[in-house]
């Protein structure tokens, strides 16, 4: 008998393989739709390795308030950030809808971030425009739907190279140093 976890992992691998095949054949880019700080965000699905329920998090003392701690995923440690708190928009709720998005290994960062909830897979063929008054470089575009919904595109490569994301030390330590 197959476990639910094995089935889910196989399903995710199959889905990612289909998306990679579509991308290789010139199809539209697929995104994971998600809610962060009550806004619609999208991240390229090829930049994500997994989306899972939030596992047990182990806090790390003397770190930024947006750094939630570390977790063990199948024997590997991952740093976990609250992206909403990182950009100063309050902490994401930790409930049944909250998910942990793990960054793809090609970025060489064992890290993930929590989101309020997923909105499923999206193809975003709408023309993009530069984001309005974003304070971070890793929100690279906005997409406006005809019904007024706005999607913000999260660029993982920029996120993992942003000094704010990389500096998890408490401001008290930085000021004292």
UniProtKB/TrEMBL annotation:
<feature type="domain" description="CheW-like">
    <location>
        <begin position="28"/>
        <end position="165"/>
    </location>
</feature>
<protein>
    <submittedName>
        <fullName>Chemotaxis protein CheW</fullName>
    </submittedName>
</protein>
<dbReference type="GO" id="GO:0007165">
    <property type="term" value="P:signal transduction"/>
</dbReference>
<dbReference type="InterPro" id="IPR039315">
    <property type="entry name" value="CheW"/>
</dbReference>
<dbReference type="GO" id="GO:0006935">
    <property type="term" value="P:chemotaxis"/>
</dbReference>
<dbReference type="InterPro" id="IPR036061">
    <property type="entry name" value="CheW-like_dom_sf"/>
</dbReference>
<dbReference type="GO" id="GO:0005829">
    <property type="term" value="C:cytosol"/>
</dbReference>
<dbReference type="Pfam" id="PF01584">
    <property type="entry name" value="CheW"/>
</dbReference>
<dbReference type="InterPro" id="IPR002545">
    <property type="entry name" value="CheW-lke_dom"/>
</dbReference>
């Amino acid at each position: 008998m197959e476990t639910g976890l094995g089935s889910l992992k196989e399903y995710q691998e199959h889905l990612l393989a289909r998306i990679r095949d579509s991308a290789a054949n010139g199809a539209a880019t697929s995104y994971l739709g998600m809610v962060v700080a009550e806004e619609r965000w999208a991240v390229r699905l090829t930049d994500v390795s997994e989306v899972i329920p939030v596992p047990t998090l182990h806090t790390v003392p003397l770190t930024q308030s947006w750094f939630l701690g570390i977790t063990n995923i199948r024997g590997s440690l991952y740093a976990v950030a609250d992206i909403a708190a990182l950009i100063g928009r309050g902490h994401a709720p930790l409930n049944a809808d909250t998910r942990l998005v793990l960054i793809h290994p090609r970025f060489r960062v064992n890290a993930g971030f929590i989101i309020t909830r997923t909105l499923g897979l999206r193809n975003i063929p709408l023309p993009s425009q530069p984001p309005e008054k974003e304070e971070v470089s890793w929100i690279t575009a906005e997409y406006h739907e005809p019904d007024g919904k706005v999607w913000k595109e999260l660029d993982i490569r920029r996120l993992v190279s942003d000094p704010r994301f990389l500096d998890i030390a408490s401001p008290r330590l930085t000021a004292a140093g």
